[in-house]
Specification:
Chain lengths: 320, 351
């Protein structure tokens, strides 16, 4: 749903976590509490970047039990479209911004007898919130966290204090890696698996779990991929009667929004399905980057997820 | 919404035995009449639950009306006889606290003369003046309340409440307080998913209604509740038309005559709303029931005309599914006096 009632916030702090990651703190402009949320939830941060409005989702990492502020940790992506660069370069304490209310596409299954969490790099952020939640409500869990090095491993200290022996760390620069086969073949019945990290890692965990006979209902994952930049292209919107130019650092969804059209969305990462749009006609190639459409839907050329996917060719007509 | 409302004097009617329930003329006019056209078919008739029109059941997000105290008394009687009308699976405790917060906050904001909530961290103080309740408790600690959080607050809120847990792109009915239902059973449906509990509904599956409705519901997010209307008809102003008590109300379906139809047959309207709960990520599904007798309807000429046309044109499968076959003809005959064949104005509201 796109009709989010945006929340006015003030950036209350910006903390450099390491050479790649900064943590941003947001408080309500009117001084009240922010909405409660559940571990795994994200917010969409609205960025006025020149004449361009970016809306980028980030996981909430702060405790769901303390909504006096929200905290997001953002890794600088020098190859991205510029959302994280904007946050790193332009956002300073005291700045007024707008955020969406929280939404959760990566919730804990509260029926689980045990929660097995696997994080890679900045994929740790939803688990910071979830482990805070489980510390308060009770729940059996353990976290396996792979990082490049001790320097780049964010929140190793916080997690070490909170989790003690339930934290297992793996350092790339010491040639340590997770043994997914061993880990996933030795879990007690009723365990739920959660994985968040780079796509190759997610794929490896999912494949190992499925091969080991894990039921699909016990497997949960979240990609943190965002829309990537690409060649500019043009899209005709048949319902609105508008043609939009999609810039190199702009997503198709952002270009549609810039034309004043209220289009549905939720995750803005190609995972939730809300922005699915019918392709009425095209001459060229649809560049699908989402995790939502099935292979046959992609082959049909009838659907596109405008939050992450792009187009290359002469003519693209969308039902929007 | 955002404005406050004052409450009318509470009525004392009953929903059983002598059936002394009666609407005041004001309560008839504020009802959420479910037909915006002269015929009815299933549709994904969902819209955002906001912009409440003043003087209607939509004015406040959680509506309280003149029947509040009487309805809560009836709920307590049902629960005394059958405690399984309120159930909550163990993983739904957090959703219970979410429900309690939502209902207390909404009521205190909408009706400050009747309800108040003071929060100091997790120390909460709730006052419900119509029911004579003054409760201090610790949010999150069920031992500080006389019931679990979900049962505690839904004993103080009109309408049924179902809590749907979201898992794997589906919704699971994992908690509920159900005492004012149109012939369905929480005890039977609990634990089922969206498609399982809707399996008995005719026609709608073929039209792809449920697939689209589920997609819409999964997109309901915090701060953006949604709503829809549903309806059926009930003999006598009985809230508890449950399968468990079918032996009590089932035979009454054959008791409608041309002489008693005006006062004994009721349009039963359900104002259903959908709220994303913050801490549990579950969806709260309140199903609020409004009863209008055929005579109540006749005080609003447009509604009587439209009710006549809807009943006449209703597909037989729907009539049977809704349990109207025994009295539909009698109702159509009585309502025909209000239908001169002229067109009705668009939309559901009275002219």
């Amino acid at each position: 749903m796109s009709t989010h009632a945006a929340i006015d916030v003030i950036v209350s702090d910006v903390v450099e976590v390491n050479s790649l990651i900064k943590r941003f703190h947001f408080k309500r402009s009117d001084g009240g509490y922010l909405p409660a949320f559940s571990g795994g939830a994200h917010i969409v941060i609205e960025m006025q970047d020149g004449d361009h409005i970016r809306r980028t989702p980030y996981s909430l990492m702060s405790s769901p039990l303390d909504t006096s502020d929200y905290q997001c940790s953002i890794r600088r992506d020098d190859e991205g479209r510029g959302g994280s660069l904007y946050m790193h370069r332009e956002v300073k304490p005291g700045m007024a911004m707008k955020i969406s209310p929280p939404a959760n596409l990566f919730p804990l299954d509260l029926r689980a007898r045990k929660h097995l969490m696997i994080a890679g790099g900045i994929g740790i952020t939803p688990f910071l919130a979830q482990t805070s939640q489980l510390e308060r409500t009770g729940g059996h869990y353990e976290l396996h966290y792979g990082v490049r090095s001790a320097e780049l491993g964010a929140y190793l200290d916080v997690l070490g204090d909170r989790l003690q022996h339930r934290l297992h760390t793996y350092f790339d620069d010491q040639k340590q890696s997770m043994d997914f086969d061993a880990l996933l073949s030795t879990q007690p019945a009723g365990t739920h698996l959660y994985v968040c990290g780079p796509t190759p890692m997610i794929d490896k965990v999912l494949n190992t779990a499925r091969a080991a006979g894990w039921p699909e209902s016990h497997i949960h994952f979240e990609h943190f991929s965002k829309a990537a930049p690409g060649e500019p292209f043009t899209a005709e919107l048949s319902v609105s009667g508008v043609t939009v130019e999609v810039g190199r650092d702009q997503s198709l969804l952002e270009a549609i929004e810039a034309a004043g059209i209220d289009a549905p969305y939720l995750c803005r990462g190609g995972a939730c399905g809300q922005c699915e749009t019918r392709v009425l006609d095209y001459e060229g190639e649809l560049l699908h980057e989402d995790h939502w459409l099935e292979d046959d839907e992609r082959a049909s050329g009838e659907k596109i997820m405008p939050c992450v996917s792009r187009f290359c060719g002469k003519r693209l007509v969308l039902e929007r | 919404m955002g404005s406050t409302a004052s409450l009318p004097t509470f009525k004392d009617g009953t929903y059983r035995d002598d059936f002394s329930f009666k609407n005041s003329p004001e309560t008839v006019l504020r009802a959420p009449f479910p037909f915006d056209k002269d015929e009815y078919m299933y549709a994904v008739n969902m819209e955002l639950h906001k912009d409440g029109r003043k003087g209607t059941a939509y004015e406040q997000p959680i509506d309280v009306d003149e029947h509040y105290v009487a309805e809560m008394r009836d709920r307590a009687l049902v629960l005394d006889e059958d405690p399984l009308r309120c159930q909550s699976q163990p993983h739904m405790e957090m959703a219970g606290w979410d429900t309690l917060e939502l209902l207390m906050e909404c009521k205190a904001a909408s009706y400050p003369e009747a309800f108040s909530l003071e929060r100091d961290g997790d120390q909460w103080h709730w006052i419900n003046r119509p029911m004579g309740i003054d409760q201090r408790f610790t949010f999150g600690d069920a031992t500080t309340l006389p019931y679990g959080p979900f049962e505690y607050i839904t004993r103080q809120a009109q309408g049924d409440f179902v809590v749907l847990d979201e898992r794997h792109g589906n919704l699971w009915m994992d908690a509920g307080m159900v005492t004012t239902q149109a012939d369905w059973s929480l005890d039977f449906d609990i634990g089922m998913n969206f498609f399982e509990w809707h399996a008995p509904v005719p026609l709608a599956h073929e039209k792809g209604i449920f697939t689209r409705a589920l997609k819409y519901l999964l997109a309901v997010q915090q701060a953006n509740p949604a709503r829809r209307l549903n309806w059926t008809m009930t003999v006598n102003p009985r809230l508890d038309t449950s399968p468990e008590n079918y032996h009590q109300w089932g035979p009454e379906n054959t008791h409608i005559t041309p002489e008693n139809v005006a006062d004994k047959l009721f349009l039963r309207i359900e104002l259903q709303s959908f709220w994303r709960l913050p801490r549990s990520n579950a969806i709260l599904f309140p199903i609020r029931c409004y009863l209008l007798s055929m005579r109540d309807l006749s005080t609003v000429p447009k509604w009587a005309t439209r009710m006549h046309r809807v009943l006449k044109s209703l597909p037989p499968e729907l009539s049977t599914y809704k349990g109207l076959d025994n009295f539909r003809g009698t109702a159509i005959d009585w309502l025909s006096q209000f239908d001169d064949g002229s067109p009705t104005s668009s939309g559901p509201f009275p002219d």
